[in-house]
Amino acid sequence: MLPETHTARGKYSAVPAAGVMPTFQFLPFSALLGTLGLLCVVFTGFWSQHWRGGFAWDGSTKMFNWHPICMVTGMLVLYGAAVLVYRVPSSWAGPKLPWKLLHAALTLAAFVLVVLGLVAVFGFHNAQGTPNMYSLHSWLGLAAVLFFSCQVGAQPPPLMPSSALAPPLAVGCLCHGLIHSVLQTLLCSPILVAHGVHCLPVTLVPCLAADHLQACSRLLRLHHPRAGHGSIHLRHQREALLQPDEQDGSLR
Questions:
Q1: Is the pTM of this model over 0.85?
Q2: I need a surface site. Which of 39, 66, 150, 205 has the fewest CB within 10 A?
Q3: Please, how many CA atoms are within 13 Å of residue 233, restricted to the half-sphere of its CB?
Q4: Which architecture does CATH list for 27-204?
């Protein structure tokens, strides 16, 4: 039995003070992480609105734009916040019910946004006649969503009576822990998001302005004379790929 010791919250508990994270260190980093998460959502929305034509639900590239905003908000920001809820020092003492409800609400909101992101990208692919699973990002992303769904479903409901939790508690917690480990290690959400941006098809990327291309070509020819020809050839290839879409009015 551990002796009662004074904690950083000013109360007495069986938890030693050495195991309590100082609030003056934790709170600024929490605010920084929250600000970075909000900036991720804002910048992704601005990128989709300003550079990719905005949002719609009509099978065009504007429908695809819902995919990055939903995945960034759900898989990165909300799911990350749900994971960190139990790291807050205020949750280490007192009733656990408010923190469980907050954790469940954040996880459910993240799950809903992830499903909407999948529906958006699958709907866009079906409307354009594009295969749904054509890249490593597609398979890893779908696996992450399936594991995420299993994690949500395997955990016993936190509001059930303790007598009803006894039989499935061990199996549920085991599945929850294993799937959570897979999500955090093998299928890391930030890696999937970065890989998804890198794997955007060339027909989905807006054509760069002509002056930017010419400036890049001049810089390449200035420092590497042979590289200028390659950049011009790449520009011609991009224009040839984008020309049919521009004629159809699918890209603006």
A1: no
A2: 39
A3: 5
A4: Up-down Bundle (1.20)
